[in-house]
């Protein structure tokens, strides 16, 4: 399953990309995230891993920074209990001079039950993706 969100953010591309790529900022704009805990590597750099701990529930993800090519792109892999999410976030200059963020999340569910859940939850997953990106936009425009 794939979810794509594209939006324009009032702010310099370099600044917006830096804010987004720093996992220490995630709890500041992801309303459902309690904290990010470094596991290995230099926090937020290519190859590093960190744990994303939610405020409620047990859906903990281990994030791996696959690549960090700022100010153009950040790629992450999130490993959860029953899902793997590949994320590509690209930052470009929009025609109006703002920063365009294009976020693509691809979900893979390894089990049959997981695939069924993913199929039934598509609408909720896409809604959550849009909500997270809108929250980041608000955060970036205030920072």
What key phrases describe this protein's structure?
alpha+beta; Alpha-D-Glucose-1,6-Bisphosphate, Chain A, domain 4; seven-stranded antiparallel β-sheet; 143 residues
Tell me the fraction of residues in β-strands, as a range.
35-45%
Cα end-to-end separation: 32 Å
Annotated CATH topology: Alpha-D-Glucose-1,6-Bisphosphate, Chain A, domain 4
* Total of domains: 1
Low-confidence stretches: none
Order of helices and strands: EHHEEEEEEHH
Number of helices: 4
Coarse shape: globular
Strand order of the largest sheet: 1-7-6-5-4-3-2
CATH homology group: START domain
Arithmetic mean pLDDT = 93
Protein model, in words:
The structure is a single chain. The protein is of the alpha+beta class and 143 residues long. It has one domain (2-142): 2-Layer Sandwich (Alpha-D-Glucose-1,6-Bisphosphate, Chain A, domain 4). The protein is built from 4 helices and 7 strands, in the order βααββββββαα. It has helices at residues 13-21, 26-29, 112-120, 122-142; strands spanning 2-9, 33-40, 49-54, 61-69, 73-79, 84-93, 99-108. Strands 1-7-6-5-4-3-2 form a 7-stranded antiparallel β-sheet. It is globular, with a radius of gyration of 15 Å.
């Amino acid at each position: 399953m794939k979810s794509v969100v594209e939006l324009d953010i009032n702010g310099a591309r370099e600044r917006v990309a830096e804010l987004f790529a720093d996992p220490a900022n995630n709890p500041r704009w992801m309303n459902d995230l309690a904290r990010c805990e470094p596991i290995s590597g230099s926090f937020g750099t290519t190859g590093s891993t960190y744990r994303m701990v939610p405020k409620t529930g047990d859906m903990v993800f281990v994030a791996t920074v696959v690549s960090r090519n700022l100010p153009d792109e950040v790629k992450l892999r999130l490993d959860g209990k029953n899902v793997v999410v590949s994320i590509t976030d690209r930052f470009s200059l929009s025609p109006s001079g703002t920063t365009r963020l294009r976020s693509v999340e691809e979900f893979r569910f390894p089990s049959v039950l997981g695939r069924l859940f993913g199929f039934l939850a598509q609408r909720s997953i896409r809604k959550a993706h849009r909500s997270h990106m809108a929250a980041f936009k608000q955060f970036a425009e205030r920072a």
